[in-house]
Amino acid sequence: QQSPETPDVVMQLSELMRYQLESAKKNTVLLKKELEFIENYLLLEEKRLSERCHLEFLIKGDLSNLRIAPMLLIPFVENAIEHAFVGQKGTKNIDIQLTLINKLLHCTITDNGIGLNAAPPRKNDHKNSLSTTITQERLQILSKDFQMKGTVKIEDRSKYQEKGTKVKIIIPYKFSA
Q1: CA pair distance 49, 30, nearest whole angstrom
Q2: How far apart are CA 134 and CA 32, in angstroms?
Q3: Rounded to whole angstroms, how far apart are CA atoms 112 and 84?
Q4: Is 137 exposed, middle or buried (0-12, 13-18, 19+ CB in 10 A)?
Q5: For the whole model, what pTM was predicted?
Q6: Chunked in runs of 10, what are the mean pLDDT values of the chain (177 residues)?
Q7: Between the CA of residue 106 and those of 13, 158, 171, what are the distances in Å?
Q8: d(Cα 99, Cα 95) in Å, to the nearest integer?
Q9: CA 105, CA 34: separation in Å to the nearest integer?
């Protein structure tokens, strides 16, 4: 039995898969398209979880002509959905801020989840998450390819007397032709 939302969900899922397949064969994608992908992903997750989830983008400066490597940000957004909000009631916030400072593209992803320090221990607690490790390795390669610094830092927001996790990424980029 289909709900009235089923055709929308199928279309959104189809768009996500199409973007993922198309971007997999590209070295760079428009930052704007990557952000649209993340927004569509969160809309689907909100329906799946049947809970209120809020995404906010704050973009400082004109970043419309920037191209980045595809799928750099989504692992951290997905980690927030899958791990940060476990057992939490109420509104779940994910804020993504992008700013170009001194020719470096800074991205900060924050959530109001349980935070790193409160997360239950994993079976392999001594290991970084796979997505973090892969992203760090990708950023090292991209730093060389783009001849531009790329880093990732993840911290618990409790050190700022706040709730959740903060991910700071410096993203190598190119200008769109």
Answers
A1: 29
A2: 23
A3: 8
A4: exposed
A5: 0.84
A6: 64 83 88 89 78 67 89 90 80 89 93 82 58 89 93 94 95 91
A7: 29, 21, 6
A8: 13
A9: 14
